[in-house]
Amino acid sequence: MDFDALYYPYPSRRSVVYARNGMVATSQPLAAAAGLAVLRRGGNAIDAAVAAAACLTVVEPTSNGIGGDAFALVWSQGRLYGLNASGPAPAALTIDAVTKRGCREIPPDGWLGVTVPGAPAAWAALAERFGSLTLSEALQPAVEYAEAGYPVSPVCSRLWEQGRRRFAAAGGEEFRPWFDTFAPGGRAPRAGEVWRSPDHGRTLRRIAESGAKDFYRGELAERTVAFAKSSGGYLGADDLAGYSPEWVEPIGVNYRGYGVWEIPPNGHGLVTLLALNILKGFDFDPGAKDAVETYHKQFEAVKLAFADGLAFIADPRKMRVTVAELLSDAYADERRRLIGREALAAAPGSPPRGGTVYLATADAAGNMVSYIQSNYMGFGSGLVVPGTGIALHNRGCNFSLDPDHANCLEPGKKPYHTIIPGFLTKDGRAVGPFGVMGAFVQPQGHLQMVMNTVDFGLNPQAALDAPRWQWTRGKTFEVEHQFPEAVAEALARRGHDIRRSVGNLAMGRGQIIWRDAAGVLAGGSEPRTDGTVAAW
């Protein structure tokens, strides 16, 4: 990739960052600094990713936690590897168990949405296979921040207060440990206020020293199971003990000479690839990023891709069509022919918002990592294992309760998963990691990052700064306040229901690191949050 050819048309408080020795881009500056410190101590990009990921459970608990899931794409020694560290539904959690509680869908708060957490296993698996340092060395910055405390960042503080209000409204004694951990004084910490959690520190030490075994088969597992039993939960000892993350083959498409790579289902990176497969059949003028025709075709391709994704994506063992069938050129041609001048109707319903962290790392040896980790919907389920700081996610909310749907809830089955890391290659060489957090905006954010780079020549920071949009349901698209008004009006005349987003955070938060042929790294960090690029 020729950085000189990339331009920067959008105003930002940040500029693209260049470096050669290493780079870490995250949504929280302290986590980025932790990853960089690990690099400078002799760690590689994988060690830095693990360090930053563990750190984010402490310094950005509003979006992820020790009890969440994770996915990673790792470039090492000229090859791309995929890690799926999402967890299945507990053996005791069935459709009947949910409906007996009077629920017509799985609620976001409480035990019904809790699946087996995969994040600790992801850290251990990455460190064991690719790390240069021990897991204890990689997790040390997170332990230090948990024990000594850190000043809370502004966006995190705002989201923290939203979480406090949410769980206060939910009520229930099972949420008391959340308040003991995250709001011990009855309120969320303010921006700049120091918050500490010794429970997090002790738990991270046990995970580090045991290679995450304690989380799944030791004292931490026993505490989690005991909490579930005492508060009406479904997670059992066998569910935790039987868990291990999966190394998977990434899936990808060729988009104008670039390889665009995603984690295969149960993740929905497939939606990005479906949309790009449709769009590669159109020509886009490099100077026409903000043209009505460009947005119209992007909108239509995304709706068609989501119609397929929401119908077919599930635990891969339960999918009724193959990825190869969905990504065939013949199928892309068939879907592309549906796009005309007017907006199409879309069948899927309204997807929920998300709570996730994304990070990207690179080192001088050529290793690069695209990593994403989440508790979903902010703090997740609102359940914290007492005395541990383990905030449990609620990924089971994405299961369908329709027994005829491919993604229906079943014991031991993984749900449709929204968190997805992305990676770009060209001619067998790594260009780099990219990602956008934010539930169902993620595949759409990936598409926009790829097209901003490949079709419209934007550098990493400009690609993130550009006005963002997302499909929400039917013919409805949300656009940011800086989205051109004349373009929005023209799209409305074509039948699109255009609405201004209530806030930029609804459009996700991303990071990008590209490497050129000379080994120079170029990084961008999301302007909509507290993040930064740390480099040397």
Topology:
Blueprint lengths: L16 E3 L2 E5 L2 H12 L4 H15 L9 E8 L2 E7 L9 H5 L19 H12 L4 H14 L1 E2 L2 H17 L5 H7 L11 E2 L2 H13 L2 H5 L1 H12 L6 H5 L4 E3 L2 E5 L2 E5 L6 H11 L12 H21 L10 H4 L2 H8 L19 E8 L4 E7 L9 E2 L4 E2 L30 E5 L2 E9 L4 H13 L5 H6 L3 E5 L2 E4 L5 H9 L3 E4 L8 E7 L5 E5 L6 E4 L1
Parallel strand pairs: 17-18
Antiparallel strand pairs: 1-20, 2-10, 2-21, 3-4, 3-11, 4-7, 5-6, 8-9, 9-14, 10-11, 12-13, 14-15, 15-19, 16-17, 19-20
Describe the structure.
It holds the Pfam family G_glu_transpept. InterPro entries: GGT-like_enzyme, GGT_lsub, GGT_ssub_C, Ntn_hydrolases_N. By secondary structure, the chain is of the alpha+beta class. The protein has a domain of about 220 residues: Gamma-glutamyltranspeptidase, large (L) subunit, C-terminal domain (Serum Albumin, Chain A, Domain 1, Orthogonal Bundle). It is built from 18 helices and 21 strands. The strands form five sheets. A seven-stranded antiparallel β-sheet has the order 1-20-19-15-14-9-8. Strands 7-4-3-11-10-2-21 form a seven-stranded antiparallel β-sheet, with helices on one face. It has a three-stranded mixed β-sheet with strand order 16-17-18, covered by helices on one side. Strand 19 and strand 20 form a beta hairpin. Helix 12 packs across helix 13 and helix 12 crosses helix 16. The longest helix has 21 residues. It is globular, with a radius of gyration of 22 Å. The two termini are about 20 Å apart. About 0% of the residues have low confidence.
